[in-house]
C-alpha cells in the first residue's frame, strides 16, 4: 500500500535545525572576532642599502662617503603619529655608541632616502636629528677600530605622539622622551669592520 503526499504536507522541520545552527555559528564567529581580534601585522623595516644581517658597504661608513642608508617600512600600527630611528654600535669599546638619531618623522611617512643632510631639521621641517656619539648632528657612519666586525642596529620606533625636544638632543634624552609612546619597533642589523 503506497502513501500519497501532497505538497502541503511536506515537513519543513529538518530545515529549522540547519538555520538555527547557521545562526549560532555566525554569532559565535562574530563574538570570537570581537573578543579575540586578529593580531595586527608586525612593523617591518627594510633597507635598500644593504641586506639585514650582512655587511654594510663602505659608502655608508667613515671609510666611504658617510651617507645615511635608505630605509623603508610597512605594517604601521594604528595610532602612529611619528617615527624615530636610532642607529647604534653594540660592540664599541666604551659600550653602546650612537651613530644616528632622527625623530618626529611624520606618521604617514614610509621611507627615508639615502644621504639625509646632517642638518637638525629637514628642508620641509618634518623631522629633527640629534647629536650622535661623535658629537655631531645627524648621521655618523660606522667607524670601528681595527679588530673584529662590529654589529650595528638600526631601529625604527612607531610613536603615539610627536616628541617635544630642545636643540641638540642626545641618545639618552631621545630614549627618555620616547618612554610610554612606543607602539612598535623593529630593527635591521649590519656588520662593518675588519
TrEMBL record:
This is YbhB/YbcL family Raf kinase inhibitor-like protein. It comes from the Bacteria. NCBIfam families: YbhB/YbcL family Raf kinase inhibitor-like protein. The keyword Membrane applies. The keyword Ribonucleoprotein does not apply. Gene3D superfamilies: PEBP-like (3.90.280.10). The chain crosses the membrane at residues 12-36. Keywords: Membrane, Transmembrane, Transmembrane helix. InterPro entries: PEBP, PEBP-like_sf, YbhB_YbcL/LppC-like. It comes from Candidatus Acidulodesulfobacterium ferriphilum.
Amino acid at each position: 500500500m503506497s502513501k500519497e503526499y501532497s505538497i502541503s504536507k511536506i515537513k519543513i522541520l529538518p530545515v529549522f535545525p540547519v538555520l538555527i545552527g547557521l545562526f549560532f555559528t555566525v554569532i559565535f564567529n562574530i563574538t570570537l572576532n570581537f573578543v579575540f581580534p586578529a593580531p595586527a601585522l608586525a612593523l617591518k623595516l627594510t633597507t635598500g642599502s644593504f641586506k639585514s644581517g650582512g655587511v654594510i658597504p663602505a659608502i655608508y661608513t667613515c671609510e666611504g662617503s658617510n651617507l645615511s642608508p635608505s630605509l623603508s617600512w610597512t605594517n604601521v600600527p594604528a595610532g602612529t603619529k611619528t617615527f624615530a630611528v636610532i642607529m647604534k654600535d653594540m660592540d664599541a669599546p666604551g659600550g653602546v655608541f650612537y651613530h644616528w638619531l632622527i625623530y618626529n618623522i611624520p606618521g604617514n611617512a614610509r621611507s627615508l632616502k639615502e644621504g639625509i643632510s646632517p642638518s637638525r631639521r629637514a628642508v620641509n621641517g618634518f623631522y629633527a636629528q640629534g647629536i650622535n656619539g661623535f658629537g655631531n648632528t645627524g648621521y655618523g657612519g660606522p667607524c670601528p677600530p681595527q679588530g673584529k666586525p662590529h654589529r650595528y642596529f638600526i631601529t625604527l620606533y612607531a610613536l603615539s605622539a610627536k616628541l617635544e625636544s630642545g636643540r641638540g638632543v642626545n641618545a639618552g634624552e631621545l630614549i627618555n622622551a620616547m618612554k610610554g609612546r612606543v607602539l612598535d619597533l623593529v630593527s635591521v642589523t649590519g656588520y662593518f669592520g675588519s
